[in-house]
Structure formats: C-alpha cells, structure tokens
Amino acid sequence: MADLFKNITCDNIENEHLCCAIADKKHQCGVEVKKQWLKGRLNEGHVFRKLDEKGKVFIEYAPLETAWVPVIGDNYIYIYCLWVSGSFKGNGYAKALLEYCVADAKKQGKSGICILSSKKKKPFLSEKKFMEKHGFAVADSIDEYELLALSFDGSMPSFAENVKKQNIENDDLTVYFGMQCPYISDCIKQVERYCSENNIILNLVAIDSLEKAKALPCVFNNWAVFYKGKFETVHLLNEGYLKKLLGI
C-alpha cells in the first residue's frame, strides 16, 4: 500500500494539493499560506504524507521539539492531523498512514508519538478510540482534552505548565491562531466580518513562532478561542458556531 502515498517535499510542494482544502475554492488562499508555512518546516523534519490522488487522506507530523503546540516531551513525534474522509474511509488508509509514522519514529530512534484528542469525539481532532486501538494511551489531560501517546520507552510527554492557566485577562472574544491549517484564513475572515457587523470586539493573536506556540495559556493544535477570559474551544469558528459560542 505504500506506493499509494507520497510525501510533500520542497521540490514538489508547488504542484501538489493539500488534501483537506482540495475541493473548496474559498480555502485556496489558506492553501497558499499553508504552503509557505510548510516550506519553513520541512527542513525541521516536518512530514506531510498523503494519498496520491484527489482526496482528503493524509497525516501530518513533526518532531515535538519543533511542533507549534504547547506540548513538551523528550524525543517525541507530534501528530497535528490524521484525516481520512468520505468515500476513502474503510480502505485501511488511516492505519497505513499511522503505521508509516510509527515506523518513521522508530527509525529515527524516537521515544514515542503523541497527538491531541478528547474524551468525546470532536471536530478537527483525531478520535480517541481509533488511537487507543493502535496502542495510544492518555499521557496528560486538561478538562475534556487529552494528550494521547504511544511510548516506545516508557517516557511520556505532557502539556506545558502554562497550558493549565486556561484563562486570560482580556474579556473580549480572543482567538489565537496559527497558519498550519488551510481553513484558518477563511475562518478569520468570517469571524472578522461577523464581529464588525455586530459591534463585537475581537482580539486576534497570531501565533507566528515556535516560542509563542509553546507559551500558549491553553490547549492548542492551530486554533484556540477565549471568551470572557475563559478558554472555550479549539473548534474553528464560522458564523454559526460563533453565534452559539456568544449565546446569540
């Protein structure tokens, strides 16, 4: 099955699609932003591996030390996203992609692999049951969010100490965002438009460096939302979800 997949490289990135935003024109701006972000990560050992056809089937991971998330651990791999969508489900693709990641981590002499998940299934996060089926266990948790890990040597990663804050001093709607996900650019446009039309104060905080990502006051994969000083969700916001969050 290995020959069904290919890895994004500096040589092919301009000519390859980035699965998750493949069919939606409104996200193409985000795709270009993501490609620029990826170009700066590939030489750090960042891997984006996808099915070699037009479909949402891919895994994306990086060494934990250079992963833009507030997670710490010695010699681990962090999985940002593992996604198999629609008609591609049921073909063993998710298992094959995860097995590739595990083999790659072992080849590099890593201590294990970790991923952000949740007690109950949530959009934009890998399902806990699937990861547990493949040997992952809870390494750390904060409320409904869990850091799952597959350890090769008994060591475990954890959320950074600053993640436990779960609150900020600013009561305004505050969104921390990176550019690791192609959907983010359009989500920001939707949130900005809705807040402007409804006189809602919005504070956008760009996470544009590894240092900023490691120092975040909450759980984060590429997006995090606070309202009235309290951490609310890592769910990407559109107008409908934003209304629900604000109680409108």
The oligomeric state of the chains shown is: single chain
Would you report the number of β strands? 13
Give the strand content. Answer: 25-35%
How far apart, in Å, are the first and last alpha carbons? 48 Å
CATH top-level class of the largest domain = Alpha Beta
The count of helical stretches stands at 6
* Sequence of secondary-structure elements: EHEEEEHEHEEEEHEHEEH
Shape: globular
CATH architecture of the largest domain: 3-Layer(aba) Sandwich
Count the domains: 2
Provide the helix percentage.
10-25%
Rg value: 18 Å
Strand order of the largest sheet: 1-2-3-5-6-8-7
CATH topology of the largest domain: Aminopeptidase
Class from helix and strand fractions: alpha+beta
**Average residue pLDDT:** 93
Catalogue the unreliable spans.
none
- Sheet of most strands: 7 strands, mixed
CATH superfamily of the largest domain: Gcn5-related N-acetyltransferase (GNAT)
Question: How would you summarize this macromolecular structure in one to three sentences?
Answer:
This protein is an alpha+beta fold.
Task: Note down, in words, how this protein is organized.
This protein is of the alpha+beta class and 248 residues long. The protein has two domains: 2-160, Aminopeptidase (3-Layer(aba) Sandwich), CATH 3.40.630; 162-246, Glutaredoxin (3-Layer(aba) Sandwich). The chain has six helices and 13 strands. Helix 4 (184-197) links the parallel strand 10 (173-177) and strand 11 (202-206). The longest helix has 15 residues, at 93-107. The model has no long low-confidence stretch (mean pLDDT 93).
